[in-house]
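Repro:
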Amino acid sequence: MPAYVGGNEAMEQYLKEYQLYTLQTRKMRIDAKVEVSFSIEMDGTVTGARVLNVADLKANSPKYDKLTDEKKAEVMAAATEHFRKEAVRLVERMPKWTPALKNERPIKEKMTIIIEFDPYYKGPKK
């Protein structure tokens, strides 16, 4: 199997550290889990990122609770679109991986990961 350089903890750190929020998703404290599929090429580059699913989308702000149902639907639709684009951006900008090997030779391999968007994340623990 291909491996992220530094292991899964390093990948989680990269994904959390570089995720961007729109003003609205930050203000409404929206979190989500986005499942992304992509390929690791023979040279370790990441290609073909695409979103399979956006799940557990929820707003954790009292401001959100005060909105009308119509406005809530608009906010969630915009948030879903943002998280889809952001997940693809994060994956496409990942540093090179260690490619999968078959018979001691690098091969192209498909991967699927889940990116958790957390508006409360404040940076690496010191």
